[in-house]
């Protein structure tokens, strides 16, 4: 029986090789690095760090960031995340700084830019788009609202349909 958590020096690839190959093929790490460049001297790029976190998430792990090097300890890190990197390069400090950089840049903005780039590259966009608007909300003052509280949504018996 093969022990997937064997730390005796052998490496375990499991399904993570396919995931890493997909990340590489789509160019996710390169796109992230375009938007979130690092200062000189960093051992790993933000793209590599995000790739490592994707591998961890799809590796069915739920460990804290400080345990991340342990997750990578029995993985072929240089094959999955790039040459000249080790499991210890993906510590909680480097991953935390990456998450901070993503937050500062804008999570939705980064996701939108990366996904649009990939969708255009692989021609994944069709001529029409389905947009689920059931979660949109409207707040504010209404021109024809005679109530004292302008934050109250007027009672509408049927939705307005626009051609």
Task: Give a written overview of the molecule.
The chain has a domain at 16-121. It has seven helices and no strands. It has helices at residues 16-26, 28-35, 46-57, 68-72, 77-81, 92-105, 107-121. Helix 2 (28-35) crosses helix 3 and helix 2 crosses helix 7. The model is unreliable at 1-7 (pLDDT under 50).
Keywords:
single chain, 163 residues, mainly alpha, 7 helices, 43% helix, globular, disordered N terminus
Layout of helices and strands, plus pairs?
Layout: H1 16-26, H2 28-35, H3 46-57, H4 68-72, H5 77-81, H6 92-105, H7 107-121
Helix pairs in contact: 2-3, 2-7
* Shape type: globular
Order of helices and strands: HHHHHHH
Tell me the total number of β-strands.
Answer: 0
Q: Give the overall average pLDDT.
A: 81
Q: What structural class is derived from the secondary structure elements?
A: mainly alpha
The profile of the biggest β sheet is: none
Low-confidence stretches: 1-7
Q: Multimeric state of these chains? A: single chain
CA radius of gyration = 23 Å
Compact overview of the structure:
This protein is mainly alpha-helical and 163 residues long.
